[in-house]
């Protein structure tokens, strides 16, 4: 007997031995917080109940006879049928950092398949001054601050169109009680000409690194 829990209570489906399985399970996904995450699960003909779980907790149930039971607003589904196979697509709306973890597709009295969701947070990035006057033979420190990221961002620096050697800057990282990370990167340079310095912060979910710039205006002492 297969027992299924929905927002309408428990119901059961009688069954004997089934010859169906998960053909293609979900694949790992990395997304920015606030965006959608999508996972597909394809099962062979004859299935009765398919359950999606997030970190071990059932979030959506699909019945072959009654369709999807969507009990949580952020978790919805779309269904596709083709060539004797059925595909359930789980859609997680407005993803949150707490959604990170194991996403599992489970078919009653058959096998299950899982993937991992990584929800990342794009924080802020800033350099205090947009312009700075630098004198000849003067050593300067430029501070770049990244606040509220997850995971901690990878910080790099560029001058004009070239990356600056990592020996020229040091980056400190810390994590708050909210699980978000802060980073402070300090670049030390002695300039011989006017330059545009760029601080870049990157995480996997970002299509392009976030950046902040400062224009250092070189003033010859003569």
Automatic annotation (TrEMBL):
Organism of origin: Cepphus grylle
Official protein name in the record: IGSF5 protein
Domain of life, per lineage: Eukaryota
PANTHER family with a match to the protein in the record: IMMUNOGLOBULIN SUPERFAMILY MEMBER 5
Domain spans labelled Ig-like: 14-122, 123-215
SUPFAM superfamilies xrefs: Immunoglobulin
Name of one Pfam family that matches: I-set
Protein's gene: Igsf5
GO cellular component: bicellular tight junction; cell surface
GO annotation (BP), single: cell-cell adhesion
């Amino acid at each position: 007997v297969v027992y299924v829990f929905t927002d309408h209570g428990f119901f059961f489906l009688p069954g004997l031995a089934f010859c169906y399985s998960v053909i293609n399970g979900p694949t790992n996904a990395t997304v920015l917080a606030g965006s959608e995450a999508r996972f597909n699960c394809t099962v062979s003909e004859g299935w009765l109940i398919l359950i999606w779980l997030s970190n071990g907790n059932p979030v959506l149930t699909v019945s072959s006879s009654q369709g999807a039971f969507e009990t949580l607003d952020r978790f919805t589904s779309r269904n596709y049928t083709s060539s004797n196979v059925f595909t359930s697509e789980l859609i997680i709306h407005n993803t949150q950092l707490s959604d990170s973890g194991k996403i599992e597709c489970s078919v009653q009295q058959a096998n299950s398949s899982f993937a991992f969701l990584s929800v990342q947070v794009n924080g802020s990035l800033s350099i205090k001054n947009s312009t700075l006057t630098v004198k000849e033979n003067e050593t300067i420190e430029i501070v770049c601050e990244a606040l509220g990221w997850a995971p901690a961002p990878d910080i790099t620096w560029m001058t004009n169109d070239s990356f600056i050697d990592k020996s020229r800057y040091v980056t400190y990282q810390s994590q708050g009680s909210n699980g978000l990370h802060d980073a402070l990167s300090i670049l030390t340079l002695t300039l011989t000409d006017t330059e545009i310095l760029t601080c870049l912060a990157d995480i996997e979910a970002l299509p392009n690194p976030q950046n902040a710039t400062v224009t250092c205006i070189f003033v010859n002492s003569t």
